[in-house]
């Protein structure tokens, strides 16, 4: 199932209907306030929503009901962007302005904040084991170790006039981080922060495809990545090939967001003019299938896909997240956590250094 977010509503598209997509889809749940981000917590059957005025809410997919997440304090009225979740929905992670917030959903209180960027944060991504959090601003990439309470700055960003637009941890590799920089895809190994392991030019033929706006690693393949560009292009990249780029597919409208389907057989893309595009990877010679979302042709802000739960995972509602106040430590963010005595808990109060401060952590 896929959740499509527009400025006025959530539209849910069932996986069964996407095998033969309808030409038009009615909104599932209208929104009174303008949203800014969405994240699907499959374990809790819940959609987390962030809003342009700084609020948060939850939408229960089964019951079809929505409720606000009460915030103990609201230090910022800036838009909630790049909303994520961890701990089976007990913890929300999002950015507002220059700050990254880790929030207990049950209490509405931050258990952690990061204020290490000089410019507004543009994107966030969590590693496959939920231990590493990447944050980007226009000219910086930071990786925070949520377990060890440490952070580092990734270097080696190419010179030029480009800006960093988005990032995504690879689903199959804890330390592989993919970063959109102009029309270039930077592939980092976060254990080697001095520079990207590979740089792939999506616009090597100079067709002015625009900037990278979305990156989605395949949930099935360990090497396949889909990249959406603002000019109306989806690029398929094989990270293990020497040149990386192996297929560039023109789309009928500018791309705003992109995601693989849960099983990895298709790529979903949203457009500026309210179209949901389905690209079947087994039929790349055919144009993408199109579903019109709503009546107004509103921009699709985000697409969030319900992941397939692993064996043993059960639907669970968010629980209280622990918090404490140990200071930030300067350590290697890629190392696993040392053993702890049972019952112990750690969190961060002291923020890391600003963009210019790099250290071996």
From TrEMBL:
Domain of life according to the entry: Eukaryota
Keyword Repeat annotated: yes
UniProt keyword terms in alphabetical order: Repeat, WD repeat
Residue ranges of the TM segments: none
Keyword Repeat included in the entry's annotation: yes
Name of this protein: Anaphase-promoting complex subunit 4 WD40 domain-containing protein
Region (Disordered): 319-361
Xref: InterPro entries: WD40/YVTN_repeat-like_dom_sf, WD40_repeat_dom_sf, WD40_rpt, WDR55/POC1
């Amino acid at each position: 199932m896929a959740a499509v977010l527009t400025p006025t509503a959530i539209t849910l598209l069932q996986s069964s209907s996407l095998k033969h997509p309808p030409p038009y889809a009615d909104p599932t749940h209208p929104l009174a306030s303008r949203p800014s981000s969405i994240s699907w917590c499959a374990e809790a059957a819940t959609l987390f929503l962030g809003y342009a005025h700084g609020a948060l809410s939850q939408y229960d997919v089964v019951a079809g009901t929505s409720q606000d997440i009460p915030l103990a304090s609201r230090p910022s009225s800036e838009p909630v962007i790049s909303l994520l979740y961890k701990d089976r929905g007990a913890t929300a992670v999002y950015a507002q302005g220059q700050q990254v917030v880790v929030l207990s959903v049950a209490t509405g209180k931050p258990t952690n904040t990061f204020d290490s960027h000089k410019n507004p944060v543009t994107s966030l991504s969590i590693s496959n084991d939920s231990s590493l959090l990447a944050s980007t601003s226009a000219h910086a990439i930071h990786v925070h170790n949520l377990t060890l309470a440490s952070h580092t700055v990734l270097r080696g960003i190419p010179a030029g006039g480009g800006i960093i637009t988005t990032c995504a941890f690879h689903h199959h590799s804890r330390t592989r981080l993919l970063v959109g920089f102009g029309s270039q895809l930077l592939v980092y190994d976060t254990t080697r922060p001095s520079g990207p392991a590979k740089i792939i030019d999506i616009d090597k033929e100079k067709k002015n495809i625009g900037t990278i706006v979305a990156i989605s690693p395949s949930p099935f393949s360990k090497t396949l990545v889909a990249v959406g560009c603002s000019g109306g292009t989806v690029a398929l990249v094989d990270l293990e090939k020497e040149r990386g780029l192996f297929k560039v597919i023109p789309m009928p409208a500018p791309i705003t967001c992109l995601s693989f389907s849960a099983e990895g057989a298709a790529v979903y893309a949203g457009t500026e003019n309210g179209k949901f595009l389905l690209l079947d990877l087994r039929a790349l010679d055919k144009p993408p299938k199109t579903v019109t979302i709503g009546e107004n042709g509103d921009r699709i802000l985000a697409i969030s896909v319900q992941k397939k739960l692993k064996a043993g995972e059960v639907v669970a509602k968010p629980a209280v997240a622990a918090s404490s106040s140990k200071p930030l430590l300067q350590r290697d963010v890629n190392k696993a956590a040392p053993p702890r005595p049972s019952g112990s808990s750690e969190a961060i109060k002291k923020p890391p250094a600003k963009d210019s401060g790099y250290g071996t952590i």
